[in-house]
Amino acid sequence: MSTQKRSLLKVIVLGDSGVGKTSLMNRYVYKRFTQHYKATIGADFTTKELDIDGKSVTLQIWDTAGQERFHSLGAAFYRGADCCVLVYDVNVLKTFETLQIWHHEFLLQTNPSDPDSFPFVLLGNKLDVDGGKSRVVFEKTAREWCGSRGDMPYFETSAKEDYNVDDAFLCIARTAISNQHDEQEIYFPEIIRESNSEIEPRERCAC
User: Fold this and answer.
1) Residue 106 CB neighbour total at 10 angstroms
2) How many CB atoms within 10 Å of residue 190?
3) Long-range contacts of 33-38 (CB under 8 A, 24+ apart)
4) 98-146: per-residue pLDDT in tens?
5) d(CA 135, CA 18)
6) Strand, helix or coil for residue 118
7) Rounded distance, CA 153 to CA 73, Å?
């Protein structure tokens, strides 16, 4: 394990398995989408160079596993985060109901000096499924949830249709900048991997 000092923004993406965290990241960074994938094991990250209000920044996006058996790894991967992105599937109620658990665990693991002001952004993904007819969590409900947690920014997205993804990540980057500390120490834990034989594909698509 090693540390580096860099002028970058570290963003952690959390949510249940299958909500489309990896697909959102791939759509934003690589401008691609696929329904053929395997579940994220532990955590991995990718970077994207941005110009925000004339300031050149590197957005480091950490894609984390949604499976329960990896929750204990949070302390290592969350360290040094400038922003946390919570993702749920608008078509699956359980993924919305568990947001509180992800929110609480992140704050518990990172122990920020002012938990009430730490920046979060909420994404309701898979807006495209069945033309929106399958959704069970509606925008009003999500915005009320965000409002009760300090007016957390909220976006509805579709990685498959590339809907609202760029706008969401631009907001995420701006939110992270507001929380960034100059010359902060960024922590890079070793990536946790398992053999492919241990990876179980998710049942739902990652759109």
Assistant:
1) 20
2) 9
3) 33/159, 33/160, 33/162, 33/207, 34/206, 35/205, 35/206, 35/207, 37/201, 37/202, 37/206, 38/196, 38/199, 38/201
4) 999 999 989 998 889 899 999 999 999 999 999 989 999 999 999 999 9
5) 15
6) coil
7) 26
SS3 category, 205: coil
CA distance 86 to 16: 9
Question: Domain map of the chain by residue range?
Answer: 2-198
> Buried b / exposed e across 112-138, counting CB within 10 Å, b at 16+?
eeeeeebbbbbbbbbbbbeeeeebebe
pLDDT of residue 204: 44
Rounded Cα distance, 71 and 83, in Å: 18
Q: What angle do CA 89, 117, 88 make, to 5 degrees?
A: 5
- Please tell me the pTM assigned to this model: 0.81
Between 108 and 168, the more confident residue is 168
CATH class as words, domain 2-198: alpha beta
DSSP conformation letters of 10-33:
EEEEE--TTSSHHHHHHHHHH---
**Cβ 158 vs Cβ 132: under 8 Å:** no
